């Protein structure tokens, strides 16, 4: 290695080199992924703690590339955001989720709202609102049953354009949720300004709940978020609920909805149909 600076030496370390190579491979493979129809959506049910019913679905992106091997959204979304590919991919997600929701609804399945993840990069695109409304109009999915999940970092943009975008979505009846709430560093000021109806507590807080037996910091943060949500008249959903004990504690704290492996992993569409049908019978 040449010794011109720290970065050079780090670049030559084998792990950094492998990471950089993997990143480039993903970047390259992403370019053709939409056209090659390599994406699909998995769906995870959202459960209302008041009556145990299914109150929604979250659409989660899956990518099957023939050579890369398994590549989770946690790995490729960040790269797609950096290249800008997320704008087209995100629009595909939105349309596919609405199309699927309308088809399920027409076949008599009951599942409430469809919730779709939206990246900060998509929000920056001036045509975003129109595209959302068009996706609903084209697929026949009601805007009143669509929710967009937006991370705290996206709300930090806090521009007039973002304001207008949210205003237009709100008047069209589209709901907004703050995703991964509690993990972004942010002032909470946006909560009083943006028309956000729901907070989603990140899995990292829920993972410690049952283990800590109702004590500890994760518990306090979780309770505080639920209280905050209530004070602001928002709904609160906890993600990553894996045990009955997690769910019992969350119900006790006044959480409205849960999502997690306890009820179901994210499922391919056909599996989800079976899951919904089995549940409707029981
Ligand atoms: P997220 O929005 O916080 O989604 C929840 C993640 O937690 C999903 O991971 C889900 O499979 C996982 N999960 C749900 N319940 C449990 C549980 O009980 N235990 C555990 N251990 N995990 C659980 P996934 O599908 O790998 O997605 C990771 C992240 O990628 C998502 O986190 C979201 O930020 C992003 N993502 C996924 N799909 C999209 C998309 O279409 N657009 C955008 N912009 N981001 C997406
Ligand atoms: Ca989400
Ligand atoms: Ca997220
Ligand atoms: Ca999360």
Automatic annotation (TrEMBL):
Protein name: Histidine kinase
Organism field: Luteimonas chenhongjianii
Protein origin, superkingdom: Bacteria
Full protein segment contained here: 628 to 909 of 921
Residue spans crossing the bilayer: none
Residue ranges of every copy of the EAL domain listed in the record: 23-280
């Amino acid at each position: 290695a040449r010794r011109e600076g720290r970065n050079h030496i780090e670049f030559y370390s084998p792990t950094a080199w492998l990471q950089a190579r993997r990143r480039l491979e993903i970047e390259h493979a992403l370019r053709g992924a939409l056209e090659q129809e390599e994406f699909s959506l998995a769906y995870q049910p959202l459960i209302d703690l008041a009556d145990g019913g299914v109150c929604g679905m979250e659409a989660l992106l899956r990518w099957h590339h023939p050579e890369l091997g398994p590549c989770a959204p946690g790995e490729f979304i960040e790269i797609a955001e950096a290249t800008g590919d997320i704008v087209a991919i995100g629009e595909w997600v939105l349309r596919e989720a609405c199309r699927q929701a309308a088809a399920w609804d027409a076949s008599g399945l009951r599942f409430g709202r469809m919730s779709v993840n939206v990246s900060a990069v998509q929000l920056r695109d001036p045509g975003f609102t129109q595209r959302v409304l068009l996706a609903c109009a084209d697929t026949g999915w009601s805007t009143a049953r669509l929710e967009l999940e937006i991370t705290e970092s996206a709300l930090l943009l806090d521009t007039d354009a973002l304001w207008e975008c949210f205003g237009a979505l709100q008047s069209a009846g589209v709901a907004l949720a703050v995703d991964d709430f509690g993990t972004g560093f942010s002032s909470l000021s946006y909560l009083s300004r943006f028309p956000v109806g729901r907070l989603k507590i990140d899995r990292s807080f829920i993972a410690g709940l049952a283990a800590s037996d109702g004590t500890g910091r994760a518990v306090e943060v979780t309770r505080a978020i639920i209280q905050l949500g209530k004070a602001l008249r928002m709904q609160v959903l906890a993600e990553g609920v894996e045990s009955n004990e997690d769910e019992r504690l969350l119900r006790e704290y006044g959480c409205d909805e849960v999502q997690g492996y306890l009820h179901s992993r994210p499922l391919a569409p056909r599996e989800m149909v079976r899951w919904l049908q089995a549940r409707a019978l029981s």
